[in-house]
C-alpha cells in the first residue's frame, strides 16, 4: 500500500492515477477522494479538464476570486492536479512511473486510445502486475459499438431511460425527456467505484490486479431496474407516465391550492390513512381502490377524485396533516429551497471547502457517513497544475527524472506556466 495523509479514513493508503475528464470518471475518483484515497488528476497543458471552461456560472472564493466553472468544482473536490502532456514521450515515461507507484489507474479514453502511448492496461500490467485498471467508455471494450463515442444524453436515449421519462403520449408537452442531471454518467461513476473496490479486495487477497471494463450503455440498461423487468415479464415496453408510477397508485404529483406536492403512497395502510385525513375514509373500502393492484387498474378514476380533493388545501396544510399521519408527502423544491431545508442543513450537505492555499469556497458534502471511517473534511477542487511540482518531486525517482528538464522539454507544466 502507498502512503496517504488522510489516516484513519476508509481508503487511506490507496493512490489513484486519474486519467479521466468530464463527469463519469471524475465522479468515481471524487468519491474515492472523499473516502481518503490520494487522487492524482492528470490534466492536459492546454486548459486541463474540459469542464474547467464549462461556465458560467463560475465559483468564487471568499476573497471574491474567480476559481473556474461550477461544473468542474462539482466533481473534482479533494484531488491533486498534475499537468502532463500525454502525447510527449517524456510525459508518457513520467506517467508510467506514476502508475507503477499507484494502486489504481482509471481512464475514459476511446477504446485503444492509450495503447499508442504505452498507457493501456496490457502495457502497465507489465510494470505493475497487481495494478487495478478501470476503463470507462460509452459502449465498452467489445461489441459492434465499441469504437463509438458515448455521451450521457445519447446513452439515456439509447439505453431506454428517455422512453420512460416525460409526459404520457396525448398530453401537453408529450415527448421523451432526459433527466435533469447527467444521471447515466453519475451511475457509471458509482458502479466504477464498486468495481474498483471489489478489484482491490481481490488484489489484497491474491496479489492479482485486473482490468475493469465499464460502459455507460451497460449501466443504463442495468439501472432500468423495475422498468426492465416489467418488459421482460410482459413483453411490452413501458411507456412514459409523467410523474406517475407504473406499479403504485397514488404515487405522483398533485396540484394543491398554491402549488404542487408529491404524494408517495406505497401500501394500503398509508392509503387508508390518507383517505381519513382527506375526509374520505370510505374511499379506502371501495373495492376499486382498496388494494394497490385495484388502484393501478382503476388509476384514472382514482386520480380524478384525488385531484379534486388535493386542490382544496394549501401545500403546507397537506404536508403538515399527512406527515402527522405518517403518509409520505413532500413539496417539489427548487435547488434554493433544497439548501434551505432544515433536514438538508442538519445533515451538513452544504459545505465550505478550503483549497490548498487556505481560500474558502462553496461546495456540496459527500453523502457517505461511516461511523468508524468517515469521509475526510472537504477540500476544494484544485487549480490547474497546482500539485505538479509536489507530486512529481515526491513520486518520481530523482535518478531517472529531472523535473526541470521535463518542464523545459514541455512534458510537464508547473502551476503558473499553463498555456
Automatic annotation (TrEMBL):
Its EC number is 2.8.3.15. Coiled coil: none annotated. Keywords: Transferase. One of its GO terms (molecular function) is succinyl-CoA:(R)-benzylsuccinate CoA-transferase activity. It comes from the Bacteria. Transmembrane segments: none annotated. InterPro entries: CoA-transferase_III_domain (IPR050483), CoA-Trfase_fam_III (IPR003673), CoA-Trfase_III_dom3_sf (IPR044855), CoA-Trfase_III_dom_1_sf (IPR023606). Residues 44-68 are annotated as: Disordered. SUPFAM superfamilies: CoA-transferase family III (CaiB/BaiF) (SSF89796). It is an enzyme of class 2 (transferase). This is Succinyl-CoA:(R)-benzylsuccinate CoA-transferase subunit BbsF. It comes from Pacificibacter marinus. The gene is bbsF.
